[in-house]
């Protein structure tokens, strides 16, 4: 049964990834709010972030904390995972807050950017959410599974599916897993998605939480929480800027920890 499920999941995953990639190219590119062009002085910190939970944390908690230190925080929201990094590399913003380490490393490698982490802030557990079925026990032969289409989060999804006994990956691939590492695969065309592996920030935007809706969650034991912790990122050389250090301190504050704990029902977990 495990071998047969592996075959079917491979077919679905390739189809789902292709679909997600197409949507990403047509639906996300160029989508953002305009950043402020007015020069507000040396005490202004411009940060690029995705809306949930990053921009919420920045606007609701970090902005007033920085105001107490004499800084003005300007948050520009993006709905994709490319523009925040390119804006930081090009100096349009001072920092960004949306990504984990493996994605940052992959982005630098592929794009030739020079972005570095300043501090870790939180961890968003990847989870399996119900589609056509409400329990993993109800998955039948030929079940369909959607996974994220970027390489680092695709690997997380595959590791989660293996954790739940749905597929078997090549031994030792770890966070470098791809769909090609699924054992005994035979491509099959299937139409609908039965369950989906979703990053917590997208799940939150869809009204889903880990505590209330997830069928399975990646284990936070061991290296998971630190490996996929979301980071405050700047262009290399700006790590010790006074404003950036003030921003990092605010992001690692008790106020931010309490806000995360009280607002995200297990879908966001502080790591500081």
What this model shows, in words?
It is a single chain. The chain is α/β, with parallel strands linked by helices and 272 residues long. 40% of the residues lie in helices and 18% in strands. The strands form two sheets. The protein has a six-stranded mixed beta sheet with strand order 2-1-3-9-4-10, sandwiched between helices. The chain has a four-stranded mixed beta sheet with strand order 6-7-5-8. α2 (51-68) links the parallel β1 (44-49) and β2 (72-77). Mean pLDDT is 80; it is low at 1-40 and 184-192.
* Share in helix: 40-55%
Strand order of the largest sheet: 2-1-3-9-4-10
The rounded distance between the terminal residues' Cα atoms is 42 Å
Number of helices: 10
Oligomer description: single chain
Largest sheet properties: 6 strands, mixed
Rg result: 19 Å
Q: Quick one: how many beta strands?
A: 10
Strand/helix succession: HEHEHEHEEEHEHHEHEHHE
Tell me, briefly, the overall form: globular
Mean pLDDT: 80
Uncertain spans: 1-40, 184-192
Beta-sheet strand percentage? Answer: 15-25%
* Class from helix and strand fractions: alpha/beta
Summary, kept brief:
The protein is an alpha/beta fold and 272 residues long. It has helices at 2-27, 51-68, 83-89, 101-111, 151-163, 200-205, 210-213, 224-227, 242-251, 254-263, and strands at residues 44-49, 72-77, 95-100, 115-123, 127-130, 145-146, 195-198, 216-217, 229-235, 269-270. Helix 2 packs across helix 9 (242-251).
């Amino acid at each position: 049964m495990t071998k047969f499920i592996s075959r079917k999941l491979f077919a679905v995953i390739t189809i789902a990834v292709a679909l997600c990639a197409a949507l990403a190219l047509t639906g996300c590119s160029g989508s953002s709010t305009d950043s402020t062009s007015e020069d507000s002085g040396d005490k202004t910190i411009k940060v690029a972030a995705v809306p949930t939970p990053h921009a919420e944390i920045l606007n609701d908690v970090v902005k007033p904390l920085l105001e107490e230190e004499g800084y003005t925080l300007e948050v520009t929201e993006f709905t994709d995972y490319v523009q925040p990094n390119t804006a930081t590399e090009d100096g349009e913003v001072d920092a960004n807050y949306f990504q984990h380490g493996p994605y940052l490393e992959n982005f630098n490698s592929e794009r030739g950017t020079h972005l570095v982490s300043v501090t870790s802030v939180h961890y968003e557990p990847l989870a399996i959410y119900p589609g056509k079925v409400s329990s993993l026990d109800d998955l039948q032969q030929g079940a369909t599974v959607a996974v994220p289409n970027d390489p680092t989060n695709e690997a997380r999804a595959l590791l989660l599916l293996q954790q739940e006994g749905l597929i078997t990956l090549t031994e030792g691939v770890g966070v470098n897993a791809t769909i090609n590492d699924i054992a005994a695969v035979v491509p099959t065309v299937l139409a609908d998605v039965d369950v989906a592996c979703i990053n917590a920030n997208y799940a939150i935007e869809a009204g889903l939480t880990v505590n209330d809706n997830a069928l399975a969650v990646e284990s936070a034991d061991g290296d998971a929480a630190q490996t996929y912790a979301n980071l405050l990122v700047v262009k290399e050389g700006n790590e010790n800027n006074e404003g950036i250090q003030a921003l990092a301190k605010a992001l690692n504050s008790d106020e931010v920890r309490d806000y995360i704990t009280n607002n995200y029902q297990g879908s966001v977990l502080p790591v500081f």
